[in-house]
Write a structure and sequence with these properties.
This protein is mainly α. The protein has a domain of 27 residues. 50% of the residues lie in helices and 0% in strands. It is rod-shaped.
């Protein structure tokens, strides 16, 4: 992802960055989800 940082939108590199960012976000949500706080 570092090599794609600063990639311009609507380019091949920009598209690759969007895909990698979406995959990273999905992984984070699945494996590092934060539960809502419990009411006291």
């Amino acid at each position: 992802m570092r090599s794609l940082r600063g990639a311009k939108p609507n380019t091949q590199e920009g598209g690759e960055m969007e895909i990698l960012a979406a995959l990273a976000e999905a992984y984070k949500e699945k494996h590092h989800a934060i539960d809502p706080p419990e009411l006291i």
